[in-house]
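// run 5 | inverse folding | seed 20
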């Protein structure tokens, strides 16, 4: 029986999640995090995908991504990321086999309010997991770059986010009075 297709919308942000196989650790070393982000930066340009938010947890990844007109590029990007990361970790750890637990999950984000909530959810993952007290303490997330308005050269900003204020701190305060900065 064929699996059902995903609902993908062109020029629309999507919340994307990829989990480690059996919830195993995907990012055991700093170099694994760095390699994933390097690959994401490289292939986002190749596929013309916008990256609004990301958080690399030890055993899964959350991202807010937006494909342009060709929605198939989202699946291509995720396939490329998964394959390259699997080969890298297998080589690094002297192992073989799968790293990821099946296909990635994605869901369209169809309102500005949900977009902002989704980005906040993604970037607060390490706080909810008890890994850090505030999201700016977690280096494998887009939050620190947004907070200090650091132009990292590859992270995209959605117009509804930039409309919240002129600085990263202003925007974070507008997102939620409860968000620890």
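// decoded
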């Amino acid at each position: 029986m064929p699996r059902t297709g995903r609902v993908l919308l062109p020029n629309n942000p999507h919340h994307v999640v990829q989990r480690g196989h059996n919830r195993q650790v995907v990012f055991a070393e700093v170099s694994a995090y760095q390699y994933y982000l390097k690959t994401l930066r490289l292939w986002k340009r190749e596929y013309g995908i916008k990256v609004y938010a990301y958080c690399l947890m030890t055993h899964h990844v959350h991202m807010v991504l937006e494909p342009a007109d060709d929605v198939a590029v989202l699946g291509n990007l995720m396939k490329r990321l998964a394959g390259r990361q699997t080969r890298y970790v297998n080589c690094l750890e002297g192992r073989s086999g799968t790293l990821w637990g099946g296909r990635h999950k994605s869901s369209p984000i169809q309102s500005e309010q949900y977009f902002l909530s989704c980005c906040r959810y993604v970037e607060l993952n390490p706080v909810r997991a008890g890994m850090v007290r505030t999201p700016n303490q977690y280096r494998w997330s887009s939050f620190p770059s947004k907070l200090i308005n650091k132009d990292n050269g590859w992270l995209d900003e959605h117009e509804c986010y930039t409309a919240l204020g002129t600085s990263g701190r202003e925007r974070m305060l507008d997102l939620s009075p409860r968000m620890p900065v």
